[in-house]
Protein backbone atom coordinates (compact mmCIF):
# COMPACT_ATOMS: atom_id res chain seq x y z
CA UNK A 1 0.00 0.00 0.00
CA UNK A 2 1.21 3.46 -0.80
CA UNK A 3 0.14 6.62 0.98
CA UNK A 4 -0.21 9.52 -1.41
CA UNK A 5 -1.38 13.07 -1.03
CA UNK A 6 -2.58 14.60 -4.27
CA UNK A 7 -2.33 18.25 -3.21
CA UNK A 8 -1.05 20.16 -0.22
CA UNK A 9 -3.74 20.40 2.45
CA UNK A 10 -5.82 17.55 1.05
CA UNK A 11 -6.13 14.29 2.99
CA UNK A 12 -3.78 11.50 1.99
CA UNK A 13 -5.08 8.47 0.15
CA UNK A 14 -3.91 4.90 0.59
CA UNK A 15 -3.52 3.22 -2.78
CA UNK A 16 -2.58 -0.47 -3.24
CA UNK A 17 0.75 -0.93 -5.00
CA UNK A 18 -0.20 -2.97 -8.10
CA UNK A 19 3.17 -4.77 -8.12
CA UNK A 20 3.51 -5.60 -4.41
CA UNK A 21 -0.08 -6.10 -3.21
CA UNK A 22 -0.49 -9.46 -5.03
CA UNK A 23 2.87 -10.61 -3.63
CA UNK A 24 1.78 -9.74 -0.07
CA UNK A 25 -1.51 -11.60 -0.57
CA UNK A 26 0.39 -14.65 -1.83
CA UNK A 27 2.76 -14.53 1.17
CA UNK A 28 -0.21 -14.69 3.54
CA UNK A 29 -1.92 -17.39 1.48
CA UNK A 30 1.20 -19.59 1.54
CA UNK A 31 1.50 -19.33 5.33
CA UNK A 32 -2.21 -19.94 5.94
CA UNK A 33 -2.76 -22.75 3.43
CA UNK A 34 0.58 -24.56 3.21
CA UNK A 35 2.16 -23.64 6.55
CA UNK A 36 5.13 -21.98 4.83
CA UNK A 37 7.79 -20.61 7.16
CA UNK A 38 9.37 -17.18 6.91
CA UNK A 39 12.50 -18.73 5.39
CA UNK A 40 10.40 -20.56 2.77
CA UNK A 41 8.61 -17.31 1.91
CA UNK A 42 11.96 -15.51 1.59
CA UNK A 43 13.29 -18.27 -0.69
CA UNK A 44 10.16 -18.03 -2.85
CA UNK A 45 10.55 -14.24 -3.09
CA UNK A 46 14.21 -14.64 -4.08
CA UNK A 47 13.40 -17.27 -6.73
CA UNK A 48 10.63 -15.12 -8.19
CA UNK A 49 12.99 -12.14 -8.50
CA UNK A 50 11.09 -9.92 -6.07
CA UNK A 51 12.93 -6.75 -5.06
CA UNK A 52 12.20 -4.05 -2.50
CA UNK A 53 11.60 -0.49 -3.66
CA UNK A 54 15.31 0.04 -3.07
CA UNK A 55 16.13 -2.75 -5.53
CA UNK A 56 17.36 -5.25 -2.93
CA UNK A 57 16.19 -8.74 -2.04
CA UNK A 58 13.76 -8.82 0.87
CA UNK A 59 15.46 -9.86 4.11
CA UNK A 60 14.00 -12.45 6.45
CA UNK A 61 13.18 -9.73 8.98
CA UNK A 62 11.21 -7.85 6.30
CA UNK A 63 9.23 -11.03 5.55
CA UNK A 64 8.28 -11.35 9.23
CA UNK A 65 7.48 -7.64 9.48
CA UNK A 66 5.09 -7.96 6.51
CA UNK A 67 3.48 -11.07 8.02
CA UNK A 68 2.72 -9.17 11.23
CA UNK A 69 1.65 -5.80 9.76
CA UNK A 70 -2.03 -5.02 10.52
CA UNK A 71 -2.05 -2.11 8.05
CA UNK A 72 -2.60 -4.59 5.20
CA UNK A 73 -5.82 -5.75 6.91
CA UNK A 74 -7.16 -2.22 7.34
CA UNK A 75 -6.09 -1.19 10.84
CA UNK A 76 -3.25 0.92 12.16
CA UNK A 77 -1.93 2.27 15.46
CA UNK A 78 -1.35 5.99 15.79
CA UNK A 79 0.91 7.13 17.22
CA UNK A 80 2.89 3.90 17.07
CA UNK A 81 3.19 2.35 20.52
CA UNK A 82 0.24 4.31 21.93
CA UNK A 83 -2.22 1.42 21.97
CA UNK A 84 -4.73 3.57 20.06
CA UNK A 85 -5.95 1.66 17.00
CA UNK A 86 -7.94 2.97 14.06
CA UNK A 87 -9.80 1.37 11.18
CA UNK A 88 -8.52 2.83 7.93
CA UNK A 89 -10.83 4.41 5.38
CA UNK A 90 -8.93 2.56 2.64
CA UNK A 91 -9.69 -0.80 1.05
CA UNK A 92 -7.50 -3.40 2.81
CA UNK A 93 -5.60 -5.88 0.65
CA UNK A 94 -6.15 -8.73 3.16
CA UNK A 95 -9.28 -9.99 4.89
CA UNK A 96 -9.06 -9.54 8.67
CA UNK A 97 -9.65 -13.26 9.22
CA UNK A 98 -6.64 -14.21 7.05
CA UNK A 99 -4.44 -11.66 8.81
CA UNK A 100 -5.43 -12.99 12.25
CA UNK A 101 -4.84 -16.60 11.15
CA UNK A 102 -1.34 -15.86 9.84
CA UNK A 103 -0.43 -13.69 12.83
CA UNK A 104 -1.38 -16.55 15.16
CA UNK A 105 0.70 -19.05 13.15
CA UNK A 106 3.74 -16.74 13.19
CA UNK A 107 3.37 -15.93 16.89
CA UNK A 108 2.94 -19.61 17.77
CA UNK A 109 6.15 -20.48 15.92
CA UNK A 110 8.00 -17.73 17.74
CA UNK A 111 6.70 -19.00 21.10
CA UNK A 112 7.48 -22.63 20.22
CA UNK A 113 11.06 -21.75 19.32
CA UNK A 114 11.37 -19.32 22.23
CA UNK A 115 12.43 -16.70 19.70
CA UNK A 116 12.28 -13.10 20.77
CA UNK A 117 13.13 -11.15 17.63
CA UNK A 118 14.64 -7.72 18.05
CA UNK A 119 14.81 -8.15 21.83
CA UNK A 120 18.51 -7.36 22.18
CA UNK A 121 20.87 -5.08 20.31
CA UNK A 122 24.48 -6.16 19.83
CA UNK A 123 27.36 -3.77 19.26
CA UNK A 124 28.79 -4.85 15.91
CA UNK A 125 25.83 -6.31 14.02
CA UNK A 126 25.28 -3.30 11.76
CA UNK A 127 28.94 -2.47 11.33
CA UNK A 128 30.27 -5.73 9.91
CA UNK A 129 29.54 -7.94 6.92
CA UNK A 130 30.38 -11.59 6.39
CA UNK A 131 33.79 -11.86 4.75
CA UNK A 132 32.68 -14.93 2.82
CA UNK A 133 29.32 -13.94 1.26
CA UNK A 134 28.71 -10.28 2.17
CA UNK A 135 25.59 -10.93 4.26
CA UNK A 136 25.04 -9.08 7.52
CA UNK A 137 26.41 -10.26 10.82
CA UNK A 138 24.04 -11.29 13.60
CA UNK A 139 24.75 -12.25 17.17
CA UNK A 140 23.51 -14.30 20.07
CA UNK A 141 24.31 -14.27 23.74
CA UNK A 142 24.99 -17.42 25.72
CA UNK A 143 25.18 -17.59 29.50
CA UNK A 144 27.37 -20.11 31.27
CA UNK A 145 27.07 -20.82 34.99
CA UNK A 146 30.43 -21.16 36.69
CA UNK A 147 29.82 -23.93 39.22
CA UNK A 148 32.70 -23.09 41.55
CA UNK A 149 31.56 -19.49 42.14
CA UNK A 150 27.87 -19.66 41.20
CA UNK A 151 28.35 -16.65 38.91
CA UNK A 152 27.21 -16.30 35.34
CA UNK A 153 29.64 -15.65 32.50
CA UNK A 154 28.16 -14.09 29.36
CA UNK A 155 29.52 -14.75 25.88
CA UNK A 156 28.47 -13.03 22.64
CA UNK A 157 28.86 -15.00 19.42
CA UNK A 158 28.77 -13.23 16.04
CA UNK A 159 28.02 -15.12 12.83
CA UNK A 160 26.74 -14.72 9.27
CA UNK A 161 22.96 -14.21 9.02
CA UNK A 162 22.88 -16.03 5.63
CA UNK A 163 20.69 -13.32 4.06
CA UNK A 164 22.56 -13.32 0.73
CA UNK A 165 23.70 -16.94 0.72
CA UNK A 166 21.82 -19.47 2.83
CA UNK A 167 24.59 -22.01 2.23
CA UNK A 168 27.37 -19.82 3.62
CA UNK A 169 29.57 -21.83 6.01
CA UNK A 170 30.66 -18.88 8.17
Structural description of this entry:
The chain is α+β, with helices and mostly antiparallel strands. It is 29% helix and 19% strand. The protein contains four helices and six strands; from the N terminus they run ββαααββαββ. A hairpin with a 4-residue loop joins strand 5 (137-146) and strand 6. The protein starts with a strand and ends in a 10-residue tail after the last strand. The mean pLDDT is 85.
List the helices and strands and how they pair.
Elements lengths: L1 E3 L8 E3 L5 H14 L3 H10 L12 H8 L7 E3 L7 E3 L8 H17 L24 E10 L4 E10 L10
Antiparallel strand pairs: 1-2, 3-4, 5-6
Helix pairs in contact: 1-4
What structural keywords apply?
single chain; alpha+beta; 4 helices; two-stranded antiparallel sheet; 29% helix; 6 strands; 170 residues; globular; two-stranded antiparallel ribbon
Number of extended strands: 6
Helix content: 25-40%
Structural class: alpha+beta
Termini, distance in Å?
37 Å
Short recap of the structure:
With 170 residues, the protein is of the alpha+beta class. It is 29% helix and 19% strand.
Amino acid sequence: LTIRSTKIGEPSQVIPDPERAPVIKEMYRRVAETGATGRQIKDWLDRSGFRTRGGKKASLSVVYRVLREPFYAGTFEYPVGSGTWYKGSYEPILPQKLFEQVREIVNERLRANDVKPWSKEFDFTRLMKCGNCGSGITAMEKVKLIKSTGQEKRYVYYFCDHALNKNCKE
